Amino acid sequence: MDDGTRLRSREIMDVRSVTRSSPSLRSKALTRKLMENPKVPFAVALIFADAILAFLIIAFVPYTKIDWDAYMSQVTGFLGGERDYKNLKGDTGPLVYPAGFLYIYSAFQYLTGGEVYPAQILFAFLYILNLAIILLVYVKTDVVPWWALCLLSLSKRLHSIFMLRLFNDCVAMTLLHAALLLVIHQRWHLGLIMFSGAVSVKMNVLLYAPPLLLLMLKAMDINGVLVALAGAALVQVLLGLPFLVSYPVAYISGAFNLGRVFIHFWSVNFKFMPEPVFISKGFAIFLLAAHLMLLALFAHCRWCKHEGGLLKFLHSRYVSMRLEFVRFSSSFKKLGKTSSSSLKVLTKEHIVTTMFVGNFIGIVCARSLHYQFYSWYFHSLPYLLWRTNYPTLMRLILFMGVEMCWNIYPSNSLSSGLLLCLHLIILWGLWSAQPDYPYVQDKSSSHKDT
């Protein structure tokens, strides 16, 4: 009896010792995992360090008055009951952004009372949120080394765009990066809704639309693509409904005007072009043709290389669509299973690369880039540079060169010409790099396919 009691007490002590040691074992396992992938702790430390920097900027760097007062004037008119877009004006002119901008900046006015200092605090939190989202995208992809994540916090111009200018580009890009994060986790429908929300703040987000549509055709069947597009369109209709009901022509022509000509003086790129050429319709058509041609070339030779090229891929999707139509009309479930079985899960790297490169092509071919437009692609620069085959030193030189060009004010012929050259060098590096196998399934055979 005593032996049994001692045996049970020894077992209890063993269990307690294991219980005490298990948190330690878990802690060691977690530490080992973090040491193997230092991106996570480094990203967290980067967020905290950048948060301190953001609030130091607000405290010690003077605010630059540009668009905030105009935004507040436009919002005041909207809240006062005005629904004619031609009458929603500010110091910088009439409102040229879709309705989502009005709702978001109305909320900002409510939270800040229209005052600059609390708005700067709000935008500091927006900056940190955007940084956290984009860092999560970088951590989820295996492209950029952990130490290079610090490049995302080294832009003087980007800090200025967020904390000292309060531009709506900041809101649009935060929503876009959130949409990208949803897409790489295969939440396509929710990602499209978020993407549409970003478009409703500023139209530049549409530069991501062509590569996003291509990725959707790869990842979903035709029905899924149509439903996702319908959801995105519904967002635009619901947000713009008060204006579409009242003054539809004024809203559509004002909020979705793709033919705007920007002022030559404020352009950071193509400043070396004579102003008559810069504002000419012929130059605009040339850049649009170059944009479309580059998108087609990258889609055919890079993004759809493993599918046999863009035309072959689109033909396969057309055949799949016909099979879906036959299944729908004849109710043969077997055909539906056959058509959807060819769909595979895309890798996170392929999604992010396609999206970032597609947007960068639009940046290279943009007729005018104002200073706040740097936020359209800055966060993709480290990723794009590490997608090239350039040596690390050259990547860093290209990054610093682009940042330097964006911090020259006012821009001049030399700085704009240098920026174009840097962009073209990066684009050539992306073109000459070997595309990775785009699918999660059968990834082990990617070496055979390449």
From TrEMBL:
Coiled coil: none annotated. It comes from the Eukaryota. It is a multi-pass membrane protein. Pathway: Protein modification; protein glycosylation. InterPro entries: Glycosyltransferase_ALG3 (IPR007873). It holds the Pfam family ALG3. Keywords: Endoplasmic reticulum, Glycosyltransferase, Membrane, Transferase, Transmembrane, Transmembrane helix. Its EC number is 2.4.1.258. One of its GO terms (molecular function) is dol-P-Man:Man(5)GlcNAc(2)-PP-Dol alpha-1,3-mannosyltransferase activity. The keyword Transferase applies. The chain crosses the membrane at residues 42-63, 119-139, 159-183, 190-210, 222-241, 248-266, 278-299, 351-370, 416-433. It catalyses: an alpha-D-Man-(1->2)-alpha-D-Man-(1->2)-alpha-D-Man-(1->3)-[alpha-D-Man-(1->6)]-beta-D-Man-(1->4)-beta-D-GlcNAc-(1->4)-alpha-D-GlcNAc-diphospho-di-trans,poly-cis-dolichol + a di-trans,poly-cis-dolichyl beta-D-mannosyl phosphate = an alpha-D-Man-(1->2)-alpha-D-Man-(1->2)-alpha-D-Man-(1->3)-[alpha-D-Man-(1->3)-alpha-D-Man-(1->6)]-beta-D-Man-(1->4)-beta-D-GlcNAc-(1->4)-alpha-D-GlcNAc-diphospho-di-trans,poly-cis-dolichol + a di-trans,poly-cis-dolichyl phosphate + H(+). The keyword Endoplasmic reticulum applies. One of its GO terms (cellular component) is endoplasmic reticulum membrane. It is found in: Endoplasmic reticulum membrane. This is dolichyl-P-Man:Man5GlcNAc2-PP-dolichol alpha-1,3-mannosyltransferase. It comes from Acacia crassicarpa (northern wattle). The lineage of its organism: Eukaryota, Viridiplantae, Streptophyta, Embryophyta, Tracheophyta.
